[in-house]
Predict the 3D structure of the following.
Amino acid sequence: MPNNKAQNYYVYVLRLRQEVWDKEIKFREENKHYDRYPKKGEPKPCSYVGSTDSKGIEARLKEHLTGYKKPGIGKWHNRYVKEYFKHRQPKQYSKINPIISTSSDKVRKKEKELAVRLRKKGWAVWQK
């Protein structure tokens, strides 16, 4: 039965080390637009865009970094975050949080919209 009580959800952006682009074929395939070696300046960030429920961003980040496995489900973390995490990027998400909703559908939509926006800025983004 669906939960009809509104709760806080959060979208977040985590900066990944550039090695994720160098070492991960699936990451590169997902970001064919990305210019790893621009003629001028530094490359745009490689990032992970995700979302979480009321437990909050810090608790979710800890799950990623520790390789958390959810009982009865299994893997509940992203391996790119676990292996290549550099730092949080709150400037990219602080204005849209919290997202108050009765379901995760609204937050998933915001998560996808944010990933698209960052890709349009030239970023390499992992979001599933």
